[in-house]
């Protein structure tokens, strides 16, 4: 009787421990590294095993860049869509069996559309099968010191053995930028056109974070929302990775917050490698950009480069004088940040009574979100307004 009681107690304790372990498991992991020195600026469970989802395509692109440098791929090389590639689930281009796609479009489809059918087709073209390509990906991961990483496919679709960590993904992003600097402008690609259809990126961080250089987002149910991006601002460059976000919006806010907090602690960015003219000419063919432009130092996305068709609303009042007063107050708080903006008092009618909105216009999308974040302590109701 006593023995049975002890067994029950032990089993109960084991179940309690198991459930408590699940309960305290981190909902996400993250890391920020200095792109110049590799020094870790911030981390939270950065070595925890995670499903990489479409961050996997960063390694697929690494292998593709190697093939380009070796002369095995040209921009017009036809990539054949097999039956296996055609049946891959979304996200995909939806290309039918037997179709071909030029390698230069396939490369952009991996990045912008995160096309799983194209990822499989590229793997089969390079290695003969996706399984062989995945083994090459894992081998390359070991060469780069990514010891938490194992690949079983080229796309990032769920497989229990396909795992990585935020730390490894940051190392991979750094290796891509260091090893293939001639392709840096690729990461800021926001759209591409294939057969008269335009595909647009859903990487909102690229549009909302000043200095963002893009790179890759990813999601599957098992992983949550992931992102890997470089950010360059004020001659400083960082790489940040978040894995396991609960939503795209919360992941993006977290990424912006990490960047804003970490950039000041990074050292002045110094490119470690120079790109020779032959590699620049080769990349120019793929990116449809003059080689002399690719040779210029890379900078992140600058707010001034964006269309200035956004507004922010900083309050709504029953009297226009109060709206005008709010505009003046916000100008005093933000100072030079609003130099190129236009203060507006817009009248509307609500429940038969006039209301006056205090707004600033002539802003880019990243500016609008950045300014509202700056105003959190002043006016929590600040609202970015899309065109």
Q: What is the terminal separation in angstroms?
A: 74 Å
Strand content: 15-25%
Strand order, main sheet: write it out: 2-1-9-8-7
CATH class of the largest domain: Alpha Beta
- Shape from CA axes? elongated
What level of helicity do the residues show? 25-40%
**Helix-strand category:** alpha+beta
CATH-defined architecture of the largest domain: 3-Layer(aba) Sandwich
Give the count of helical stretches: 13
- CATH homologous superfamily label of the largest domain: DD-peptidase/beta-lactamase superfamily
For this structure, the CATH topology of the largest domain is: Beta-lactamase
**Would you list the SSEs in sequence order as H and E?**
HEEHEHEHHHHEEHEEEHHHEHEEHE
Ranges where pLDDT stays below 50 over 5 or more residues in a row are 8-25
Summarize the structure.
The protein is α+β, with helices and mostly antiparallel strands and about 375 residues long. It is built from 13 helices and 13 strands.
Describe the structure.
- With 387 residues, this protein is of the alpha+beta class.
- It has helices at residues 2-24, 56-69, 83-86, 103-113, 116-127, 130-143, 166-179, 204-208, 248-262, 277-287, 291-294, 320-334, 365-374; strands at 29-34, 40-44, 78-80, 100-102, 191-194, 197-200, 216-220, 224-233, 236-245, 310-317, 342-350, 353-363, 383-385.
- A five-stranded antiparallel β-sheet has the order 2-1-9-8-7, with helices on both faces. Strands 11-12-10-13 form a four-stranded antiparallel β-sheet, covered by helices on one side.
- α2 crosses α5 (116-127), α4 packs across α5 and α5 (116-127) packs across α6.
- The radius of gyration is 24 Å and the shape is elongated.
- The model is unreliable at 8-25 (pLDDT under 50).
